[in-house]
Amino acid sequence: MEGKMLEMFEVGPCEDDYQLGFLIGQRFCNRIRTRLAGDLILQNQLLPFAQTPQAQALIKALSETNQKKFPRYWAELLGTAEGSGVPVLDIILVNFRKEILPFISKTATNSNADTADDCSDILIVSDSMAIAAHNEDANVALVGHTYLIKGKLSNGLSFIAYTYAGELPSCAFGFNSQGLAFTLNSVPPTEAEIAPAGIGRNFVSRDLLEATSIADALARIRSAEVSVGHSYNLIDIQRRMILNVETASRSRVSVHEVGTTPFFHANMYLHLQVQQVHDENSISRQKRSAVLPQGSKTDFLSLLGDTEDTKYPIYMTGKN
């Protein structure tokens, strides 16, 4: 998604989590400000909706729920807003984008409405190789507005996270000093499957950066009463284990251990039984992956770079 080398910011250990967020916000203030100013979903949908009574109640409930569950990460979020000099509301809205957008009236959105994040993963664990390969394809407003955070915590744990400007690390992918890594795939539950004011996806993935093992990561996912669903690819480097974990509201979780059969995941549920939005983009990528060679690392990288389907390519290069 980037055309030049990503900047990495090493931060910590800090006095507290607010300072951690403040220093990140301060370092990337220009990038955060320009991302928010050019984010049409924020400007045209989320901010106008935030002025309505319905939205104010939803945002208040989301904020209280997530602050109670994750007070440290909430302080980090507030610090990011303060450090970057942008309104706290803007930072809250981009971090809860997926939790809020389903409740905006379809008549209030336009043809540029938020669509599924078009990330793709191919995973395999065999005697000869263990691979987790990921495409990070997201909204065009994020081009030039991402960075790497190398966070060092007071307990000795450190992590590296690919981060969207203004959001908690990481709603994309990351890994830590305990040998635990993850990538993420958005999934599209229907509105009836969404629990208003639950835990936000960005807070769950921020928590995963501090997991001490794959079992601990899975426990953290299970303990979160999420608002919308998500797909997590958990990678234990030391144990050579990869789990695909699909989640939905009301504590629904399905775990698939990746083995010798290559496992491709786009942006629809594959094994958790949930009512979901029909996403032609994701279905097309899933079908295309099934006919491509999947026997070597070169095959997997070629698969993620496939552009044969010009309308819904596995490798996105811009707005189609």
From TrEMBL:
Residues 130-317 form the Peptidase C45 hydrolase domain. NCBIfam families: C45_proenzyme (NF040521). This is Peptidase C45 hydrolase domain-containing protein. InterPro entries: C45_proenzyme-like (IPR047794), Peptidase_C45 (IPR047801), Peptidase_C45_hydrolase (IPR005079).
